[in-house]
Amino acid sequence: MSDRATEAARWLAEAWTSGNPLAALPAGMAPRDAAEGEDVAAALLDALGQPPVGLRIAPDGLVGPLTAGRLVAAGTPVALSGLRHARVTAAVAAVLAEPLGAGLPLGAEPARFSALHPALDVAASRFSGPGADPAAVTADLAGLGLVLIGRGRAVLPGTEAVALAEGRQRPRGQPVDLAARLEAAAAEARARGGLPAGAVLLVAGLSAAVVPVRGARWTAVVGALGRAGAGFV
């Protein structure tokens, strides 16, 4: 781990633990590309003492670690005061039934899952202003906020109708090929060294993103997998 990544991680760790936002990382330590962003993210996890429990594909397609402390049960109220620049999308969390080996190309060995969970992904930022560059967002754990997890089902991934519903609305979902999305996530995990059985692949961004407000309730509806929702306070 470079001194540059370690120092950037210290700045981000202060923002994570204090709740005080960063305007930006100083030019001398800001990551210059995605690879440097991932180095900072790894150092940030060490600084926070939060080992990863899986991999998250963020709504914007960036890849970051998933930590246990950011996984909560669906229905848990979400306090927006602790989530800067929050954005909500429908998601799916897949629990690996077997270890995911490193280095295999896309489609070489399909990942096997013990359960698929509908999920509501609430992305957030530790930066004071919106629109941080992708390398900085990657360093900030790819915008990890909270992930609300619904009840899992032991089913094979397929194409499901996915929708993000506000309140009591029942919108018609759009078809999403979950098998393809999860296999792409598995390829990202393999490229990073693989994952053990029991780890989680979280694919967010299965719906258009919305900005939640206090008093609203949003629910991810994922076909036969069911629902995961929360009220925002």
Q: What is the radius of gyration?
A: 17 Å
Give the total of domains: 1
Name of the CATH class: Alpha Beta
The main pleated sheet reads as: 7 strands, mixed
Compressed to H and E, one letter per element, the order equals HHEEEEEHEEEHEEE
Report how far apart the termini are.
39 Å
Helix coverage percent = 10-25%
Task: Please mark out the parts with pLDDT under 50 across 5 or more consecutive residues, or reply none.
Answer: none
Strand order of the largest sheet: 2-1-9-4-5-6-3
Averaged pLDDT: 93
Count of helices?
4
Number of strands: 11
Strand content: 25-35%
Briefly note the CATH topology name. Answer: Fumarylacetoacetate hydrolase, domain 2
Structural class: alpha+beta
State the CATH architecture: Alpha-Beta Complex
Shape: globular
The CATH superfamily label reads: Fumarylacetoacetase-like, C-terminal domain
InterPro entries: Fumarylacetoacetase_C_sf
GO molecular function, one term: catalytic activity
Organism: Humitalea rosea
Protein name: 2-keto-4-pentenoate hydratase
